[in-house]
Amino acid sequence: MAGSGCTPLPIPTLPPTFIRVPGISPGSWQAGGFFVAGIGKADITPPPGLPLFGYSRVRTGDAAGVRTRLYARALYLEDARGEHVVLVQCDLGAISALLHLQVAHAIVQETGVSVDRLLIGATHTHAGPGGYFGVAYYNHWGSNRPGYDPQIVTFLTQRIANAILAAYRTRAAAKLAIGHTDIYGLTHNRSLEAYNNNQSHIGPEEALWTMLPEYQAVDPTFTMLRVDRIVGTGTQPLGAFTNFAMHGTAVAPSNDLYSGDVHAAAERALEWAIQRHYGVQSEVVHALTNGAEGDVAPVFTTQDFAEAEQLGLTLATKAFDLFQQLDTRLTDAVQLSPNYEEVALQTPYTVDDLVLCQHAMVGVPVLGGSEEGRSSLYGPLLGVYEGVRQEVPQGCHTWKRQALDFLQDLIPTTDFPATLILQTIRVNELLLVTVPGEMTTEMGQRVKQAALQAAQRTQQGITHVAIVGLANQYVSYFTTPEEYALQHYEGASTLYGPASGPFIAAR
């Protein structure tokens, strides 16, 4: 039964728990001029009775129970120079800027990890809790019922901080390897008409000729950062930080259970495979983050738990193949370099003759839901469907027709993000580029190309860029100007106009 009538239980506060590694006690490592790493994991599943973030008001009830427990997984990395970063993945729908800042405050005194060195990415499951955002728009419209819940903010902050502290306190000499593989067949482009307006495609024609266009128009790159602890003359796997573009929507909107969706199955399956194959008795982590998945949906016949788990197992199988290939590429020569900025949206910016809007606007197609999950409002009767737009472009929002018209202006409590949080973290030849929301496939490719070109000009030795979406903050969608012009769900959800995506690429 749906949990709409449930009263949320008090959210428990637990003391920090730490992953124990044989021969290593928490806090035993001392600075020694070499690469060190540690891992941590914490259960972030709240009690039933809370609203579920994702599918918005399509849902009918609150969380009535648990299908798969939700976790935060953390990797602490520090190079020989003392540069340090923390990479965190959470089984959540999104990360709020409030949560990112609160976690940084909770860990900085002990770890020295400030907000600019902390990356927190969400898997984008549509079956995690809501109500933890610092802006009213997502607390009001992102879940099946509105409201801000300070208890869930405190709960998530403490649990995520526990995972990071575990990683920090168990840090020790380590090695690292980076690898990539292409995975097709698990995802498809749900907004192909808008994508095709870019007049571009991804991947070599000869490798894709057997696939339908919607299966080609995705970013197939699966990126893995593997970390092992040095044990004697060899190593013992600690786990992996991975990245792959796929919406967390294989579980149906009617679901009323907490679930990590596809990502939960992939996370657990790889962790178990590593433990079995390498004989690891202690915990390992698979921190699977999302990529440029704004228009990318999982391939399912029916949205249910069985399909989600099967997709996750297939993804984990391919991930384990890559993990084993990295056996011979582990190195302790690691260089880290973090960069971070918060950009105030009240300042006017112009990119490629497009003006970044200084106020947010939601477009009409958003009311009808995404292409893979329509709301009851979708259809010609109410004039809510893909492609509803202005007859001629007007102002900085150009083609967008405002949802609810004047009613949107009459909701003073519904504020929007006022800043953009942008971050890059270099790990050897890999550059992690965070996006504070959901970026479409083509816009993600343009950001990658811009970053690689900048790296080549500055001779930094970066050869690969991974987009870590839904990271550190949530500001809805980011499309290309060409996609924005068609005003499908993704373009209508791009809050600050057609310059939003190009602005991120430029920064």
What does this structure look like?
- The chain has one domain (1-25, 33-507).
- By secondary structure, the chain is α+β, with helices and mostly antiparallel strands.
- The chain has 13 helices and 24 strands.
Briefly summarize what is shown:
With 507 residues, this protein is α+β, with helices and mostly antiparallel strands.
Number of domains: 1
Oligomeric form: single chain
Alpha-carbon distance between the two ends:
47 Å
Helix content: 25-40%
Contiguous helical run count = 13
Structural class: alpha+beta
Using only C-alpha atoms, the radius of gyration works out to 22 Å
The dominant shape is globular
Can you tell me the residue ranges where pLDDT is under 50 for at least 5 consecutive residues? Answer: 1-9, 11-30
Strand order of the largest sheet: 6-5-4-1-8-10-11-13
The beta-strand count equals 24
Strand content: 15-25%
> What is the typical, i.e. mean, pLDDT?
89
